[in-house]
TrEMBL record:
This is FAD-binding domain-containing protein. Keywords: FAD, Flavoprotein, Oxidoreductase. GO terms for molecular function: FAD binding; monooxygenase activity. It comes from the Eukaryota. SUPFAM superfamilies: FAD/NAD(P)-binding domain. Belongs to the paxM FAD-dependent monooxygenase family. Residues 46-186, 314-397 form the FAD-binding domain. Residues 1-20 are annotated as: Disordered.
């Protein structure tokens, strides 16, 4: 298993209640659009992407390498300040190396050496060994401040109309706009009106608990020695007769990322449009007061980290999960958390979105002119079938991980001690069974080094070894 890397990631803003004004029309028109008097002059396949998160940006860059036209529509006016990290493993590092991005990723990443599970008093329960976009896209392909209000789709193509009057048209629409996806909600409205939306897709996201996370300012290496090390350790601290679980991870630039999960100031919600941003600074501050007494691996309490964390770098979110059954309809398809939402601390969200993008681009690359609707439908169906087993397994694994870490009692303690003390070779075999490691079919492939030889190769890559 190659060393996971933790990198800062954008925190996408939640979709707020105004998304209810977004509407979708699926018609049988074969030419022309209601908001544009002219069809596209060029006979090229074009992909419209809603959402400039990890999934949307990776999809765009893969399309760039495939020579496929695309545009990304993002409702925010600028790239948001990162408030969290993402985890990348060998499932996606192969692709990143294939795209020529590995060196740049490693410059902003901190490799993880091991995951350490601790009791509330810092006694170690067990360990898992983890060592066994500049000038990338053409200018104008990411369009900021494009809040999509309406989508019109039919045999001749798909068109998005934005709140500022801007209109984009293409052959397919990809909803990469996150867990509270407006594209999904309104595609589902169309299916519901037609009476063909599965009941399970009408249910709200499954709310499990809250999480509060933050990223500190650069810390003093003398007081926090781990921050200066080349490889960081992820510390998971289990509360004693407490509903809280804490995650501590050193990050790039001598900073420390911290996260606490549990039923903190739980807000009851009854609809999917519940705003995560409703957890404002005041409520986040109250939550910090509830958890500041928790002990941390560096000595002292979490208050030391909270005091060194800017308040705009503290974020409280809902921990939700759900697997949606319907991923596509007509010319619209979903990727990432728009179609499968993972609990935030499972490390799966960003990786699975990237894997979705790879699968979809490989299929888009095979569609030939004149890009008939049936060929697009076939590509969507193959994409769904390709990703179905892996995403289901990932959701099951993340749920099991959440249960393993958060449950209390002697039975849970026994299971944690057993899992976190398995022999290294058992850990390696177990991880290899979960690896998929897809790559882009139209680029030179990267050799799969496997879990046995990756340790030394990863160390050389990170340290500039010969």
């Amino acid at each position: 298993m190659s060393a996971p890397s933790m990198i800062r990631s954008p925190t996408l803003p939640p979709t707020n209640n105004t998304t209810t004004s977004f509407s979708t029309t699926y018609s049988s028109f074969s030419s022309g659009y209601p908001y544009s008097s002219n069809m596209r002059e060029e006979a090229t396949f074009k992909v419209l992407i809603v959402g400039a998160g990890i999934g949307g940006l990776m999809l765009g860059y893969c399309l760039e390498r495939a020579g496929i036209d695309y545009v990304i529509l993002e409702r925010m006016n600028h790239f948001p300040v990162p408030k969290a990290t993402i985890q990348l493993t060998s499932n996606t590092l192969h692709l990143i190396e294939q795209l020529g991005l590995l060196d740049e990723i490693m410059k902003i990443a901190k490799p993880v050496s091991q995951v350490v599970l601790r009791k509330h008093n810092m006694a170690v329960i067990g360990k898992i060994d983890c060592l066994y976009v500049k000038q990338r896209m053409r200018e104008g392909c990411v369009q900021w401040g494009r809040y999509v209000l309406e989508v019109v789709s039919g045999n001749g193509g798909v068109q998005c109309r934005c709140a500022n009057g801007h209109v984009e048209q293409g052959d397919v629409l990809v909803g990469a706009d996150g867990a509270h996806s407006a594209v999904r909600q309104n595609m589902y409205k169309t299916l519901r009106d037609k009476g063909i939306l599965p009941k399970v897709d009408s249910e709200c996201l499954k709310f499990t608990q809250n999480a509060i996370m933050g990223s500190t300012e650069p810390m003093d290496e003398e007081l926090f020695p781990d921050v200066g090390k080349e490889f960081g350790d992820v510390h998971i601290v289990i509360g004693k007769e407490s509903p809280y679980t804490m995650w501590i991870t050193p990050a790039l630039g001598n900073t420390i990322n911290w996260c606490v999960t549990g039923p903190m100031l739980t807000t009851h919600r009854t609809e999917e449009n519940f705003m995560v941003s409703g957890f404002g600074p005041e409520e986040a501050e109250k939550t910090c007061q509830m958890i500041k007494h928790l002990q941390i691996p560096y000595g002292g309490t979490l208050e030391r980290l909270i005091q060194n964390t800017a308040r705009n770098n503290i974020n409280k979110i809902l921990v939700e999960e759900k697997y949606y059954k319907t991923w596509y309809y007509g010319r619209t398809v979903l990727i990432g958390e728009a179609c499968h939402k993972f609990v935030s601390f499972s490390g799966q969200g960003a990786e699975q979105a990237i894997l979705d993008a790879v699968s979809l681009v490989n299929l888009f690359h095979k569609i030939e002119h004149p890009y008939p609707l049936q060929a697009i439908t076939n590509a969507f169906e193959k994409y769904h079938l390709d990703r179905l087993p892996a995403t289901k397994a990932a959701i099951q694994t993340s749920g099991q991980l959440a249960g393993l870490i958060n449950r209390q009692g002697w039975s849970a303690d026994f299971k944690r001690k057993m899992v976190f003390n398995l022999p290294t070779w058992v850990q390696a075999v177990s991880v290899d069974k979960m690896q998929v490691r897809p790559q882009l079919d139209f680029l030179p492939l990267i050799v799969d080094r496997g879990s046995k030889s990756v340790r030394s190769l990863s160390l050389k890559s990170v340290s500039g070894g010969q």
